[in-house]
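User: Can you predict the 3D structure for this chain?
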Amino acid sequence: MPFEVAAGPSRLGFLMEIAASAAMSALTRDLALCLIPPHPSAQSYGTADFDGVILIEPMRDDPLVAHFEQRKTPIVSIGSVPGRPDIPAVDLQSFDTATLLLTHLAQTGCRQIAALVGASSRTSQIESVLAYDAFVTNHGGAVTLLRLDEAQGEDIAYHETLRLLRDNRDIDGIFAAIDAFATGAVRAALAEDAIHLLLDRIEGKSRVVHAQLPDLIIRQSSVAVA
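Assistant: Here is the predicted structure, written as structure tokens:
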């Protein structure tokens, strides 16, 4: 998982949340936990021996998988490894999650939804594409699917969303399969509003654009039990 979507400028990547939880579990079991930096230049995994490794959303034919298998190091994965059902994994149910998000957009009135999906061969991105294709087939509308370089993180989502909103006025919803992409898309939407306000101001018009209020969704674990 590239650093830009794992814990880059948006600081939203769930890798660090997983690391914090894993560290707590390790400490309570008198174990040491080592974090391997999630960027291509990291060579830490080649200079130390591990009793076992947890890989976060490995890609298809991921070199880390090959490396640790060659060293006979036990592997588990958060997010199933594409093409490797033999590796124990936590299934993130990315297809169903993407379907829930797309259905939510449709229920709020969106009819032309664009999708921002990572170009990597991680299961979450593969299944998000499948879910988006199935959704468009069932609900109609044009396919507007962008596969973005995850290494460019929030910035590429920002620039591509600006382009989408300027080139296609029919787009009324955006499905972002990565939280860093979502942050970039929101930045772009706000920038587009500001541009239109400035043009109106130049033409002698004055108005206020209100950002959409989010819905408060109470976690089931937070609901009081009678």
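The chain has two domains: 3-90, 94-202. Strands lie at 53-56, 75-78, 89-90, 113-118, 144-148, 173-176.
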